[in-house]
Amino acid sequence: MEHLIQLFEPHVNDGICLAFSGGVDSSLVLAAACQAVSRINPARPVLAVTFETRLHPQGDTEEARALAQSLGARHLTIPVDEFSDTRILSNPKNRCYLCKSLLFRSLLQAGRDAGYTWFCEGSNLDDTKVYRPGLQAVREAGVHSPLIEGGLTKNDVRRLAAEAGLKTASKPSTPCMATRLPYDTPFDYELLSRIHQGEDWLRNLGFYNVRLRFHAPILRIEIDKADFNRFMDQHEAITRAMKDLGFLYITLDLEGFRSGSMDI
């Protein structure tokens, strides 16, 4: 953690502006940045920017604001409509690059308007080992990734977040809802909303990692393999709930939950 804090210290007086989702990665970045600020110049608080978009799970904004403020940061919410870029609507293979380009243009504008000139985000080292075209947009925008620069994996992040007492340490990842559809499947916001409702329903049953991937007309459910027996004990209720949301064929993926399965 000390190494991570020191990465921020030279940039405190420039004004540190962070793309802050409220997840474990960006929470650890924010905590470290705020500690650097407290040492160097407490009058120059970190600006934590949370995007409200159509492709990201809703409902976490207030939690993000509360966490940012508890750590001593300023918090700003920016509404961004990804569908304003018509290229994104068709869900191409470089969709993540297009989205991140749009989001980080908004981040840079908001930060500069507030007098901040050093920008960062929460990608970790594991993100460099899988298909993450959005990282290209991060680099092109001149935005830093302190967790990557510090060589921190997701496991490192969760460990350090727990040691720092961050309540997000055990929070499951909630990536962009676009990852629930195959590439080149045009976006249907009503469909994405139903998928989001289904995931929330399963999480409320106590399942930790949950993804509903939709390959029309099949709904492929990914959960941790350790939860398979409990899932089957409740499969009738789960099937009924998914069908009530309008899905026709309900399947359990025998490979279990894995991030980025649509990229295979």
Percent strand: 5-15%
Distance between the termini: 34 Å
Indicate the mean pLDDT: 95
Helix content: 40-55%
CATH homologous superfamily label of the largest domain:
HUPs
How do the strands line up in the largest sheet?
3-2-1-4
Level-1 CATH class name of the largest domain = Alpha Beta
Overall 3D geometry?
A: globular
The count of DSSP E runs of length 2 or more, i.e. the number of strands, is 7
CATH topology of the largest domain: Rossmann fold
H/E topology pattern: HEHEHEHHEHHHHEEHHE
In CATH, the architecture of the largest domain is: 3-Layer(aba) Sandwich
Helix/strand-derived category reads alpha/beta
Query: Unreliable runs, pLDDT <50, ≥5 residues?
Result: none
User: Rg from C-alpha positions?
Assistant: 19 Å
Major sheet summary line: 4 strands, parallel
With helices defined by DSSP (H or I, 4 residues minimum), what is the helix count? 11
Q: Give the tally of structural domains.
A: 2
What does the secondary structure layout of this molecule look like, with pairings?
Elements: H1 2-8, E1 16-19, H2 24-40, E2 47-52, H3 61-70, E3 74-79, H4 86-89, H5 95-113, E4 118-120, H6 134-140, H7 146-149, H8 154-163, H9 189-204, E5 210-215, E6 218-223, H10 228-233, H11 235-244, E7 249-252
Parallel strand pairs: 1-2, 1-4, 2-3, 6-7
Antiparallel strand pairs: 5-6
